[in-house]
Amino acid sequence: MSCVKPLPVTKAILTHKFPLIDTHTHFDAPLFDKDRPQQVQLAYGQGVRHLVLVGYLQRYFERMYEVECLVNSMTLSSASTIEANKHDNSCVKAHIALGLHPFYIEQHTEHHLMQLKRRVAERRPLAIGEIGLDTFTDTMKQPKIFDKQKKFFEAQLDIAVAYGLPVMLHIRKAHAEALAILKAHKYDAQKLGGIAHSFSGGEQEAKAFVKLGFKLGVTGQITNPNAKKLQRAIQAAVDIYGIECLVIETDCPDMMPIMCQTSNNHSKEYKQAPNNKLDNTNFHDRNVPANLLWVLSSLSELLMIPHAQLAKQLWKNSCDALKVNWCYPVQ
After folding, report:
1. Which domain holds residue 63?
2. How far apart are the C-alpha atoms of 87 and 205, rounded to whole Å?
3. What is the CB-side half-sphere exposure of residue 49 using CA atoms within 13 A?
4. pLDDT tens digits for 224-280?
5. Using 50, 70 and 90 to split pLDDT, how confident is the model at 76?
6. Taking the complete model, does pTM exceed 0.85, yes or no?
7. Which residues pair with 48 in a beta bridge?
8. Alpha-carbon distance 291 to 47, whole Å?
9. Number of folded domains that form the chain
10. 211 and 184 in contact (C-beta within 8 Å)?
11. How many CA atoms lie within 13 A of 140 on its CB side?
């Protein structure tokens, strides 16, 4: 479902839109096929100017490039868009990150790693991701499975280093192990960039990733008043490193902001559905890029920082993390 208009369930009613970068999406998922152009238009209307399509299975890489091409070829028709283009000469721009997700480690092969290397060499992506470690289930904790995860994580870090690319980290219930690999590997996030996507660790782990040079990716989970652990972790990192350590993302179609959820919605992780049949999920029960504004709003409330100040800093943080130089649109 889409939640574009401000709702009274939040303290801040936004009457002004701010330029935003959605640093992590799965907007290539089939459940966007029916209305992708409309969702791009809605996202632009809510301030989104860039979105990153993030990889997780090799067989979907080509689909990602097709969606990137589609989004980047769109001409948005609203008057506000035309006026904005006078200033920033852009609409919504899509970008690609390629990676083999640890949750699907049993599906990945050495051939997929080779294909990843080939694609990176032939058509340089924005980043490598999402990559990392995941022990969320008992199966993922099995030594053989976890060893394969670590092998693929290290191999993809090698690719990132070889091509000077930032990485998008997926770390779930394996933060200490991931930190150990990053330190042993000597991956220099200060130089190469990187994002700890949908950060879910504690206070000490948040500070440890930021110390290595990673930005913490904040999703719609921050809109949940019960997400106390996440709120404490973000606040702890900001207390030491400032708001420079954060970026925001929708992770759409996952991580629906709480004010946009229906009674049956529990921020399902669609990309982890059985057999990856994303087109079998409920069309109306999904997160969309336009909802990034709610992440900004809730983060603003948590940190007690004005929306305009936070939005501008988050834009800069995203550019730093992705090692790009996207001009902040003139308002």
Report:
1. 20-322
2. 40
3. 24
4. 999 999 999 999 999 999 999 999 999 999 999 999 987 554 444 545 444 453 444
5. low
6. yes
7. 20
8. 10
9. 1
10. no
11. 18
